[in-house]
Amino acid sequence: GTVIFYDFGMSGRVEPFIQEKIVDFYVAVARQDIDAILDTLIAMGTLSPDADREVMGNVMELAIADASGEDIEQYQVNQIIEQVESTIYEFPLRLPPNLALVLRVATVVEGVCVTLDPEFDFISTATEYLRDEGYYEETARNLAQQAGQQAQRTAEALFTVPPKADDFLDRANRGDLHVDVTIEDDSKVLDKLAMRIAYSVLLAVGVLSATILY
Where are the alpha helices (DSSP H) in the chain? Predict the structure, then answer.
């Protein structure tokens, strides 16, 4: 007979919390919500909580504008570079091991698919998968539920609540309230940017960190 050895290389598991945050990242990008993007990166452990939010916000805004096809003036790029260089040895971005594996798998899979089909578009494929699996709707429901809970706490603090409002808040708290939420993405920022930021930022940080540390 024939003995075949398969080398699977590194392996790991992405816990549900990180999976949820990756979806939150997509939603924040679609909304071009810079604060939400930074909050999600912090929650995933990719961005230091002590990072200069103004500087990192400028970086993200520039990335979104570039991915959206907008013309970026060179002086804007130079300003961002100067801001980042001033804190280069205390770079606030890092690459957790589990996300490093995700990035590696994504780049390998994309490379294989592009080799087989030069027209293959990894971004649109990944985005379509998330939509088909209902991740966007799930995130919207979570946001609606959180908003309902916050509204209930606020109303309770006012001591008196009209009957209809009380019924509304009670239904929201029990999860019986159904809210249809549509994420507007007319400029297709989500399709163009989500994986691009994940690739470019995380890969750049990984290389930078390895260079500085080793």
Answer: 16-31, 34-43, 53-67, 74-85, 97-116, 122-132, 135-157, 163-174, 189-213
